[in-house]
UniProtKB/TrEMBL annotation:
Annotated protein name in UniProt: FAD/FMN-containing dehydrogenase
Leader peptide range in chain numbering: none
Record GO terms (molecular function): FAD binding; oxidoreductase activity, acting on paired donors, with incorporation or reduction of molecular oxygen
SUPFAM superfamilies found in the cross-reference section: Bacterial luciferase-like (SSF51679), FAD-binding/transporter-associated domain-like (SSF56176)
Keyword list, A-Z: FAD, Flavoprotein, Oxidoreductase
C-alpha cells in the first residue's frame, strides 16, 4: 500500500466519563501540554455514564488554546445535519479554526431507538450519512448563492440559509469498515478513522484500495483523504510484550510500517493514563516523525500539498505554488479553496489573487515577502481590514494578508502603553482598551485595519482632542524589503519611524505598533440630521461652528444628494471626548443652529460603540471613484463649489471630517503626514461611470483645497502625489526610499519613487 505523504499528527481518545468531568477536561489540557495535535471524545448520547460529547467539546475548546478538537465519532442519527453544520461552524469560529468533524452512521441502534429515532438498516444508515454530509457542506458553502436545498430520503432541508462559514476548512472524517462506508469515505470525506480494535491489519490494503477507487471515480486524488487510526489495547512497558506493548522506541518500530506501508498518518491514542499521554507526546511522536521523514526522503515520497483537480486548474501562471514553505502553506489560500471567497476581495475592490499568504508573525511576514518577491506576479499587502483605494488585492498576484497578526496587548495601564498587531481591526482594538478606560484615536469604522491607518494618518472621532493615530504611535515593528525585522522609534531607526507615519506603505510591511492610548472610556455622541437644501449656507455655518468648537469636539458631516424630489440631507456625528453631560451639552448645542434640524439625539456611549461594527469578510462592493482634499476654511467660493457638486448628482456621498486641534499641534516635519494647518478633510465618492463628471466639479474646487488625505483617493500619478506629500516631505521620502526600498518592491500604494 502507498504512503500518502501526509504530515504526521498525533492525538488522544479520552473517555468522557460523567463520574469525573474535571478529569476528562484535564486530560485534554494535558494533551495540549504534551505537544499533541488532537483531542477526541467518543459520542454515545444514549449512555448516561458519559458526558454529552458536544457540550464537552465546547468546554474543552474554551480551556485550551492550540490543540484540535473532534468527536470520535459523532452520532449523526441523533444529531441532525442542519443543526450540526451550524454548531460545527460556530465552534470552529470560537476556537479559531481548531474543530474537526468526525461522523458515524450509527452503530448501537438499540440505544439510538431508545431516544426516539427510527432504526435504519445498514444501507439506509449509509445513505442517510451521505445526505447529511451534503447538507453540512452546503451550509458551510457561503460562496454559493441561494439557500440550501437537499431533498433526501432521510434528511431534507428546503431553502435553509447558508452559514456561518467556519474559520477554516473543516475536515469530515468517517468511522468506516464495510465497503459501502469505505466508498462513501473515498467519494465525499476528508479522512478515514477506523479503530484498531475493530480492524484487522490484514484487511487494510483492501480497504485502502476501496477508498482510493471510490475517490478516483469521484474525480478526486486519493491523497485528499487522510488515513487516521485509533490506537487501543496498548501500553508503555519497560520491555516488549507484543504490538504496542513495550517501550516508546518499540512503539515507533510498530507504527512506522503503518505509515510507510499502510498509509496512516494520524494516530489517536485511546487512553486515560496521564503517563501514557506524556510519553506519546514526548517520545513517540517526535521519534516517529523523524523516522518517517528519513524514510520518505530516501524513497522520494511526495509530501507536498494535496489539491483537487479543479483547484489545481485554478492556479495562476507565474506562481510556484509547490515551492511555498511548509509553515506558510498551512494558512495559505488559493483559488479553488473553500475559504478563497473570504480573502480574495478588498472592502471595495473585487479581486482574484493567485495566492493569499496569511503569516502569523514578523518572521513569517519576512519569509512570505521573500517568497512573494521571487514570483512573477504582483505583490499586495493587506493589513487585515478594509480600505477605500482597493490596493490590497489584485488579479493573479500574491497578497500578504496580515489578519492573523491581530493581538491587542495592554503593556502598562498606568502609562497607557499598548501594543497592537497590524492585522487587528479598530473595533477589536476599541473593545480591548475600553475596560481599562482607554481609547486610541482611529478612524470611524471598526472594520478598518490597524496597519492601514497607522501608516497613513488616522482621522477619527478623537482627532481634535488626541491627534491622529500616527501622533500617538511611539514605536513600530517593520519588515523591510530585504527581509529585516526592524524596530523604528525616536531612538532606533528614527528616519524610518518618521517615514512610516504617513507614507508607510512605501517602506515596508508594518507588523505591529506601540502607542500611548488616551484616558477615554465613554464619550457623548450627538447625532443631527439637517435639511441641506441651502447647501452652501449650511456648509458655511458648519465651518464657523466646527472650527471654533472646544477641542474635545470632533465633528463629521455627511451630505447626501436628494432623490425623487426630496431635498439634500446632511447627517452629523459630533463626538465630545468625555462623559460629563454638563460639559458636553454646551459644546454640542451650537451644532443645532447649523441648519434646519430634521432629527436630533444625544447619548453617552462607550467609545467602541460609536465605531461602525464590521469584522466579517470583505465582499468587493465595487471600487468607487473617490477624491480627497484638505481644507483650511470653507470659504464662500468653496461652499458654492461643493454645493454645486452635490446638486449635480456627480457624487453620491460627500463627507467632511474635522481635523485641527491636537492634529495641528504637531510640527509639519515631525511625521511624513505633513498637513498640520488644515481644519477639514473632504472626501467625495462617485460610481466609476460618473467619475469624469465628478472630476469636472472637483477641478472647480481644487484651487480652494490645501493637500489631500491619501486614504480616500483612488487616483494615482505625480499630481496627486504632490498633494499628498508637500515638496520638502516628498524629497525626504524619496531619499529614504532609495535607502530602504531601492528596488521599489512596495509600489502599490502612492509610490514615492521617481518613477512612481
Amino acid at each position: 500500500m502507498p504512503d500518502y505523504g501526509h504530515r504526521l499528527r498525533f492525538g488522544t481518545f479520552i473517555t468522557p466519563t460523567a463520574q469525573d468531568p474535571d478529569g476528562a477536561v484535564a486530560l485534554a489540557e494535558l494533551t495540549e501540554a504534551a505537544g499533541l495535535d488532537l483531542v477526541t471524545y467518543q459520542d454515545h448520547p444514549y449512555n448516561p455514564g458519559f458526558l454529552d460529547a458536544w457540550t464537552l467539546l465546547t468546554w474543552v475548546a474554551a480551556r485550551t488554546e492550540r490543540v484540535g478538537i473532534s468527536g470520535n465519532v459523532l452520532n449523526l442519527p441523533l444529531r441532525g445535519p442542519a443543526m450540526l453544520a451550524r454548531a460545527a461552524a460556530s465552534l470552529d469560529l470560537l476556537s479559531k479554526g481548531r474543530f474537526e468533524l468526525g461522523l458515524g452512521a450509527g452503530a448501537f441502534w438499540e440505544g439510538i431507538e431508545s431516544m426516539g429515532v427510527p432504526r435504519l438498516t445498514p444501507g439506509q444508515a449509509v445513505d442517510a450519512l451521505a445526505e447529511g454530509i451534503d447538507i453540512i457542506r452546503a451550509v458551510w458553502d457561503t460562496d454559493a448563492r441561494g439557500g440550501v436545498r437537499v431533498e433526501g430520503e432521510h434528511h431534507s432541508v428546503r431553502g435553509m440559509k447558508r452559514g456561518p462559514a467556519p474559520a477554516h476548512d473543516i475536515g469530515i472524517h468517517l468511522g468506516a469498515y464495510k465497503p459501502r462506508m469505505l466508498r462513501l469515505t473515498g467519494a465525499r470525506a476528508d479522512g478515514w478513522l477506523p479503530s484498531l480494535g475493530y480492524l484487522d491489519l490484514a484487511d487494510v490494503p483492501r480497504s485502502q484500495r476501496t477508498i482510493d477507487e471510490a475517490a478516483r471515480e469521484a474525480g478526486r486524488d486519493p491523497r485528499e483523504i487522510r488515513r487516521m487510526l485509533n490506537l487501543g489495547q496498548s501500553a508503555f512497558l519497560p520491555t516488549g510484550r507484543g504490538f504496542l506493548q513495550g517501550p516508546a522506541e518499540q512503539w515507533v518500530e510498530d507504527l512506522l510500517p503503518l505509515v510507510l506501508e499502510h498509509g496512516f498518518s494520524t494516530f489517536v491514542l485511546g487512553t486515560d493514563d496521564p503517563h501514557a499521554i506524556r510519553t506519546f507526546g514526548a517520545e513517540v511522536a517526535p521519534a516517529l516523525r523523524e523516522a518517517a521523514e528519513r524514510e520518505r526522503s530516501a524513497a522520494g515520497t511526495d509530501t507536498g500539498p494535496v489539491r483537487p483537480a479543479a483547484a489545481l486548474a485554478a492556479r495562476r501562471t507565474g506562481i510556484a505554488y509547490d515551492d511555498l514553505p511548509e509553515n506558510l502553506r498551512e494558512h495559505a489560500v488559493e483559488p479553488g479553496d473553500r475559504g478563497y471567497a473570504r480573502v480574495r476581495h478588498g472592502y471595495m475592490q473585487s479581486g482574484a489573487p493567485g495566492l493569499v499568504l496569511r503569516p502569523s508573525g514578523p518572521q513569517e511576514v519576512a519569509q512570505a515577502l521573500a517568497w512573494a518577491r521571487a514570483q512573477e506576479a504582483p505583490l499586495n499587502v493587506r493589513s487585515g481590514g478594509h480600505g477605500i483605494s482597493g490596493r490590497s488585492t489584485s488579479d493573479g498576484g500574491v497578497v500578504v494578508d496580515l489578519a492573523r497578526l491581530n493581538r491587542v496587548e495592554i503593556l502598562d495601564p498606568g502609562t497607557r502603553r499598548v501594543r497592537i498587531g497590524a492585522g487587528a481591526r479598530w473595533g477589536a482594538v476599541g473593545a480591548a482598551l475600553n475596560p481599562y478606560g482607554l481609547a486610541l484615536s482611529s478612524g470611524d469604522h471598526g472594520g478598518v485595519g490597524v496597519g492601514g491607518i497607522a501608516t497613513t494618518g488616522g482621522v477619527g472621532y478623537l482627532s481634535r482632542s488626541q491627534g491622529l493615530t500616527v501622533d500617538n504611535v511611539t514605536a513600530m515593528e517593520v519588515v523591510t524589503a530585504d527581509g529585516r525585522v526592524l524596530r523604528a522609534d525616536a531612538q532606533e531607526n528614527p528616519d524610518l519611524f518618521w517615514a512610516m507615519r504617513g507614507a508607510g506603505a512605501n517602506f515596508g510591511v508594518l507588523t505591529s505598533i506601540e502607542a500611548t492610548a488616551a484616558p477615554v472610556g465613554s464619550v457623548v455622541l450627538g447625532q443631527f440630521a439637517y435639511d441641506a437644501s441651502a447647501t452652501a449656507a449650511l456648509l458655511r455655518a458648519w465651518d464657523e461652528t466646527a472650527v471654533f468648537a472646544p477641542r474635545e469636539v470632533t465633528a463629521f458631516l455627511t451630505l447626501v444628494p436628494g432623490h425623487g424630489g426630496s431635498g439634500h440631507v446632511a447627517q452629523a456625528m459630533v463626538v465630545y471626548a468625555g462623559d460629563d453631560p454638563e460639559e458636553a451639552v454646551p459644546a454640542l448645542e451650537p451644532f443645532l443652529r447649523v441648519g434646519p434640524v430634521l432629527d436630533q439625539r444625544a447619548q453617552i456611549a462607550p467609545y467602541p460603540a460609536i465605531l461602525v461594527h464590521d469584522d466579517g469578510p470583505h465582499r468587493g462592493h465595487g471600487l468607487p471613484a473617490s477624491r480627497s482634499g484638505l481644507i483650511t476654511r470653507i470659504t464662500p467660493e468653496l461652499a458654492e463649489g461643493m454645493a454645486g457638486m452635490i446638486a449635480s448628482g456627480a457624487t453620491y456621498f460627500m463627507q467632511l471630517r474635522q481635523v485641527g486641534g491636537a492634529v495641528n499641534d504637531v510640527a509639519p516635519d515631525a511625521t511624513a503626514y505633513a498637513h498640520r494647518t488644515q481644519n477639514f478633510s473632504l472626501a467625495a465618492m462617485a460610481a466609476p461611470g460618473t467619475a469624469a463628471r465628478l472630476d469636472r466639479h472637483w477641478d472647480g474646487i481644487t484651487p480652494h483645497l490645501d493637500g489631500m488625505y491619501l486614504s480616500f483617493d483612488t487616483r494615482t500619478g505625480p499630481e496627486v502625489l504632490a498633494q499628498a506629500f508637500p515638496a520638502p516631505t516628498l524629497a525626504r521620502l524619496r531619499a529614504l526610499k532609495v535607502r530602504y526600498d531601492p528596488e521599489n518592491v512596495f509600489d502599490q500604494n502612492f509610490p514615492v519613487g521617481l518613477d512612481g
